[in-house]
Amino acid sequence: MVGFLKEHFPRVLAYDFTARMEEELDRVEEGERPWPEAVRVFFEPFMEEFEKVPRKTCPVCGRPLELKVGRYGAFLGCTGYPECTYTEPLEERREAEPIGETCPKCGAELVRKWGRYGPFIACSRYPECDYTRDEAPSTGITCPKCGVGEIVAKKSRRGRTYWRCSETNCDFVVFDPPTEERCPKCGWIMVKKGKAGVLKCSNPDCEDYAYPNLKSRPARTKSAKKGRKTKTKTKAKEKKAGWAELSSFLGVLAEDEAEIARLVEGEGKALSEAARALGLSEEEAKRLYKRALFKLRMAYGRAKKEKEAVA
What domains lie within the chain, and their CATH numbers? Predict the structure, then answer.
C-alpha cells in the first residue's frame, strides 16, 4: 500500500509537503493569503495525479469499481449497483496450505486456512469433517479442562491478550498468563495475577479461583427491581412542589408568565381556556406555561438549598 501511494502520489508523500502546507495555512490564518487560493494550489495538482491512477473496471458492465465496506470487511463493488451486483474480494483468496499433520478426528490431512479473524487449522475433508483449531502461539501447556488441546495466546479486538484452549469445542479461557504450576486443591493450572504475579487457580469451581465467581452471586428478582423503582418514584413525588410553595416566587416571572401560571395552577383552568383568556393560540400558551413552571421550580429549588445550607 505504501509503495503504491509513493508511486502515484509522490508530491503529497514528500517529506517537505507537510511543512509547506503548514506555512500556507499560517498565511491564511494571518490574512496574507485567501484560503481558496491555498486549497487550489494543493487540490489541482493532486487531482492531476489522481486521474493518472489506474482504476479497475467491472468485468460485467464496464463501470468503475469502488471500495465498499460490509459486515465481513472491505471489498470492491461495481458503481452501477443495484443494476449491477458484481463484487470481488480486496485480496485474492489464499489456497489452503498443508501443515504436515493428520486430523485427530478422521485421520485426513490438516491444512491452514484464512478466515475473518485470521489463520486457523482445519481438516482437509471439510465439510464431511468439521475439526478446527486455533493457530496461535502455544504455551505448551495442556488444557486442564479437556486434556486434549494446548493453551494458546490470543488477541481480542481491543488488543488485549487472553489465553484459551486450542480446541474450538472447549471453552477454557483465562485472562492472565498461565503457568505449569498446579493448584494444590483441585489440580488445575495456576495463573499469574497482577504485577506481583500472585498465583491463582484457573478452575471456576475452586475456592482459589482467579476471577469473580458469578455463580455465587444472588440472582436479581423482578420483585426487587420493581420495589426499587417504586421507591424512586415515591421519592420523586415527595420532592415535587405544589402551587402553595411555588406561588410565593411569582415575582421572578414576566407578567404574561405569571398570569398563565395563576390561571392554570392557581385557579385550575384548562390550558385551552387560559389561552383564550390571554388571547393566545394553544401552542403559544403551552410554551408560555412550561417556561413559567420551569422558572418557578428553579426559584423554589434554589431557595430550598439556601435554607438547608443555613440550617
Answer: 2-52 (no CATH), 58-93 (no CATH), 98-135 (no CATH), 141-216 (no CATH), 240-306 (1.10.10.10)
